[in-house]
Design brief:
Number of helices of chain A: 29
Oligomer: heterodimer
Low-confidence stretches of chain A: 1-25, 300-318
Distance between the termini of chain A: 22 Å
Shape of chain B: globular
Radius of gyration of chain A: 26 Å
Order of helices and strands of chain A: HHHHHHHHHHHHHHHHHHHHHHHHHHHHH
Shape of chain A: globular
Strand content of chain B: 15-25%
Structural class of chain B: alpha/beta
Strand content of chain A: under 5%
Largest interface: A-B, 68 and 68 residues
Number of helices of chain B: 15
Helix content of chain B: 40-55%
Number of strands of chain B: 10
Structural class of chain A: mainly alpha
Number of strands of chain A: 0
Helix content of chain A: over 70%
Radius of gyration of chain B: 22 Å
Distance between the termini of chain B: 60 Å
Low-confidence stretches of chain B: 1-26
Chain lengths: ~600, ~350
């Protein structure tokens, strides 16, 4: 048993420090009460901001005047779009998987500085408005954009490749948005694999490719599994990207939902299609759980306290074949890997990593010169530069209002998320829940991050209307807190796993009460993850379009709503200016995160010495 | 420290929340429209003058969303606005559900009513302004001697090579244009022959890269040279031309006029003020002021007695142009099976535009 395991066992069974209730009812009852006290705010928030709106919206599919279900199944266009959506989601997941393995390879072989740079290349676009990025792609990939200009310069003036308004546009845009969701979990798990395992495999005679399969792929599989599930499920609910980059024959389910609500004003049709979409998402998650229970990623990966347990060593697929065949397969495997091992993998990974980093940054790089244009309308390349759109936007009361509102909502969403996340994280990590219950809790917690937001938006609107809470920044903040909560909790849970409870024991034995211990020891030590969780919750709120569009009015409009209206109403260089400004906010946030990561890294390496 | 911040944030939030809910006094009126430049023209052209004349406090929202208003009514709440600005067919479906008030034409100026086209004076809807879908093209691709003039030219990709642009809305890529290109005279367009229209659309489909769902994106496709010619709202493209995009030209002849309608909710809290506003909005003065701001078309022809000639040339309803009006009646008419022609067209369009 490693030290980490021992620490974890002790942490799990020791008395929780967050003692809201004194153990007067006996230990078990007190613990149960404490767990309940931690769960109550979470339950209240999720019922308020997720379950009631969702069920309210679904209820439109039943009992109305129309026949939404019969209409749905009679509509070949909608049935086709369901099939198409699943297919596109699968394509996107596959592409993300391939690119992620290359990028993680590049990350792992890079120096610390370059690793940070490469990670920033992922994180900054990841946290930049989807509307902004998607619009940027139409410039980058359009016939007069830089990519086609470069192709013309290389291959002659008649070359023009249609990247957008077709499937390739949808795939490029969606991969750009979703790749980080595959990459980051894969990197998180892969970077924990001790490098000496790979060395050991090489010493035992495996070539580098075989060793990569035996060690990196197998031990990193939980990260890849989480990534694949996240990407696939998110892709099912995509709206902005196919709407802006797709062409004929690329219409996805969410667009039909939007169309039913917008042009058709048929809430029954929108609700029935939404039920199908949520059903598809649920089915995928359920199927996926057969292979890999998502929630165990957060339970077990942490429970191991940083050490990786190797799975069974037998190659299951080949092991089931008859002996002769298995031998042949083994030989083939050896020969293939030996051949592949001859390729210059480090160079390839680095080259691929650089290409992917460039891909990540491309839409952002284009937005910058466009924002400095001196033209009256948005064109690429700009005919003149004078930067006059910056003062125009910053002095415009409408844009200022939207920016202020977004910051206020984001800040309130952070406060709400963290208030709920902190006790919940303690319950998940330290209470004596069974693994099954804990898994269920995490599954429920993740739901708002899984259900497509377009499905939630109308429900939130109707629900807030009933409560007379419409057009209020506070109520929008609550709705956003529901979306940010899962991310805040996951960050806190993983930090609490690594937390050494002996520090708290020390404080308690020196006479500090539970609240003092919390304030003087626990929270200060959790400072970095708290900041990380707060930033994530803030940025999710800062970028949220669909619910905000449903519940805000002209006085409470937020930045993404104004951007989306702008992209629909009047495309002007102001959009590029706002993009650059919001990226600056993101960059500042990412810089804070990176600084923390460096600090933590520094502390860890100091401890190691 | 954190508590104080939280309280400040909450107070700010509450303050921002208040005015929207307080608009239901006497002497107020809430109008909901599309936002952006469209709202700017309504505010400057119609509302400012109306407030000055009547003293009624008008709030113009930019969150026009019939689905949301309908959801509000369905859950027993008052509508978020008194007047909603939308197209005829959408309003028709609302009137079918019994959600709209009858327009009180007795408060209108009779002389004004006399010059308005009949289709503007519906029982539950007032056509208050017009805009047009016309051919907009890149003069660098088609110089003056080779300029397209008719919808037949729009369909003719041999003589007028290049990609075409159209909107994704079912009644706005306009099956009529295909029929006109095939030689149907304007007078015989309605009832629309959908078979013939879609056959014609099939012909052009390979030259249409995408059907954007927003006019702004469609206009931008001309800017970005993604299309050589498009069927677009003339006022949108006029805005780009006025901003300096001089290589784009607009063909106003043969353009389809569409009428924008105001509807008043049956449960509107300020119904009387709403009727006063409608009567005001179609007067020649406000019409002229409104149309000049956004290069749109006044529905009251008397407005052109006020509008300077050089500006009149940018407006689609100018008497100098031969245009025709979209047959809203046909779109709203029953197609059998409990569906309107528009709904049938919408479904057919959705399947057609989504298929390869």
């Amino acid at each position: 048993m490693s030290l980490a395991d021992a620490r974890d066992k002790e942490g799990r069974t020791s008395r929780p420090v967050l003692g809201l209730v004194k153990p007067v009812f006996g230990l078990a009852a007190a613990a149960r009460l404490r767990a309940l006290a931690g769960l109550a705010p979470f339950g209240a928030l999720q019922i308020f901001g997720f379950w009631i709106p969702l069920l309210l919206f679904f209820s439109f599919a039943f009992g109305g005047s129309g026949t939404p279900w019969a209409d749905l199944f009679a509509s070949s266009a909608k049935i086709d779009s369901i099939r198409r959506t699943i297919w596109i989601a699968a394509e996107v997941t596959l592409i993300c998987a391939l690119l992620s393995y290359v990028y993680v390879g590049a990350l792992l072989s890079a120096s610390r500085l370059w690793r940070t740079v490469l990670l920033l290349c992922v994180v900054v676009p990841f946290l930049t408005s989807i509307v902004v990025r998607t619009y940027a792609w139409t410039i980058v990939l359009g016939p007069s954009g830089p990519v086609n200009a470069a192709l013309r310069a290389l291959f002659g003036p008649d070359v023009a490749i249609d990247f957008i308004y077709n499937r390739s546009g949808v795939l490029i845009g969606m991969v750009h948005v979703l790749l980080p969701m595959f990459l980051l979990p894969l990197y998180a798990v892969s970077s924990q694999i001790p490098p000496n395992l790979h060395r050991a495999a090489r010493t035992m005679g495996a070539n580098r490719v075989a060793a990569w399969f035996a060690v990196d792929v197998r031990l990193g599989i939980s990260g890849a599994a989480a990534g694949a599930a996240l990407v696939f499920v998110q892709a099912l609910g995509f709206f902005v990207t196919p709407a802006m980059l797709g062409g004929l024959g690329d219409t996805m389910i969410a667009q039909f939902i939007e169309r039913d609500m917008g042009t058709q004003v048929d809430l029954g049709a929108a609700a029935s299609l939404s039920i199908v979409l949520v059903g598809a998402v649920a089915l995928c998650v359920a199927l996926f759980r057969v292979f890999y229970p998502l929630e165990t990623l957060f339970i077990r990966a942490g429970a191991a306290g940083g050490t990786i347990r190797a799975g069974p060593t037998k190659r299951s697929g080949i092991g089931m074949l008859p002996a002769g065949l298995a031998e042949a397969a083994d030989r083939l495997w050896l020969r293939t890997t030996a051949f592949l091992a001859a390729l210059p993998w480090t160079v390839l990974a680095r080259f691929g990593g650089a290409a992917i980093a460039f891909f990540f940054l491309m839409p952002l790089v284009v937005v910058l010169p466009v924002s400095l244009t001196g033209d009256e309308f948005l064109q690429f390349p700009p005919q003149s530069y004078d930067g006059r759109w910056y003062p125009a936007v910053l002095l415009d009361p409408d844009w200022r209002l939207a920016i202020t509102n977004s910051f206020i909502v984001g800040a309130m969403a952070v406060v709400i998320s963290l208030t709920v996340a902190l006790p919940l994280s303690f319950v998940i990590v330290r209470s004596s829940l069974s693994d099954g219950l804990r898994g269920l809790l995490i599954g429920v917690l993740l739901l708002p991050a899984i259900v497509p937001i377009i499905v939630l938006a109308v429900g939130v609107y109707v629900w807030f209307l009933n409560l007379q809470l419409i057009a209020s920044l506070v109520s929008l903040a609550f709705a956003h807190a529901v979306l940010g909560l899962p991310f805040a909790v996951l960050v806190l849970v993983s930090a609490l796993r690594d937390f050494d409870p002996r520090l708290e024991h020390a404080a308690r034995s020196l006479g500090a009460g539970p609240w003092r211990t919390l304030g003087l020891v626990t929270l200060p030590l959790l400072f970095a993850p708290l900041v990380t969780g707060a930033l994530l919750a803030f940025l999710i709120s800062f970028d949220e379009l669909l619910i905000a569009r449903a519940v805000t009015n002209f006085e409470t409009v937020t930045l993404p709503v104004k951007l989306w209206n702008g992209a629909n109403e009047e495309i002007s260089p102001a959009l590029a200016v706002i993009s650059v400004l919001s990226m600056t906010v993101t960059l500042a946030g990412a810089a804070v995160l990176t600084a923390f990561a460096w600090q933590v890294g520094q502390r860890k390496s100091n401890e190691d010495e | 420290m954190r508590l104080r911040y939280l309280m400040t944030a909450t107070t700010v939030g509450i303050f921002l929340h208040l005015p929207a809910g307080w608009a239901q006094d006497q002497g107020t009126l809430v109008i909901n429209s599309f936002g952006g430049n469209w709202n700017k023209a309504i505010q400057l052209g119609l509302i400012d003058a109306f407030e000055k004349e009547t003293g009624i406090d008008v709030q113009l929202l930019s969150t026009q969303d019939v689905a949301k208003s309908k959801a509000a009514l369905a859950s027993g709440n008052p509508p978020p606005e008194d007047i909603i600005d939308t197209n005829f067919a959408t309003g028709f479906s609302l009137s079918r559900d019994g959600l709209l008030a009858d327009i009180d034409y007795s408060v209108f100026n009779q002389e004004t009513l006399d010059v308005l086209p009949d289709y503007a004076k519906q029982p539950y809807a007032l056509g208050w302004g017009q805009f047009a879908i016309g051919i907009c093209y890149d003069t660098e691709k088609f110089p003056e001697d080779k300029a397209p003039k008719t919808w037949a030219d729009f369909w003719n990709v041999e003589e007028f090579p290049g990609e075409r642009g159209m909107l994704a809305w079912p009644d706005e890529p306009t099956p009529e244009m295909g029929l006109l290109a095939a030689g149907t005279p304007i007078a015989e367009l309605y009832p629309l022959d959908l078979e013939a229209a879609f056959a014609k659309l099939d012909e052009l489909k390979p030259n249409i890269p995408t059907f954007p769902s927003s006019p702004a994106v469609l206009g931008q496709m001309l800017v970005d040279r993604q299309v050589a010619m498009e069927a677009c709202f003339t006022h949108r493209v006029q805005g780009l031309v006025d901003a300096g995009l001089s290589r784009i030209a607009i063909v106003f002849d043969n353009a389809r006029l569409q009428t924008e309608y105001f509807f008043v909710w049956k449960d509107a809290p300020n119904k009387e003020n709403a009727m006063k506003f409608l009567a005001f909005a179609v007067e020649a003065g406000p019409q002229a002021a409104w149309a000049q701001i956004g290069s749109t078309g006044p529905i009251n022809p008397k407005a052109f007695e006020i509008i300077p000639e050089d500006i009149a040339g940018k407006l689609p309803t100018s008497p100098a142009y031969e245009t025709w009006a979209k047959g809203d009646d046909w779109y709203a008419a029953d197609a059998g099976g409990g569906k309107t022609n528009r709904e049938v067209l919408e479904e057919r369009w959705a399947a057609w535009s989504a298929g390869k």
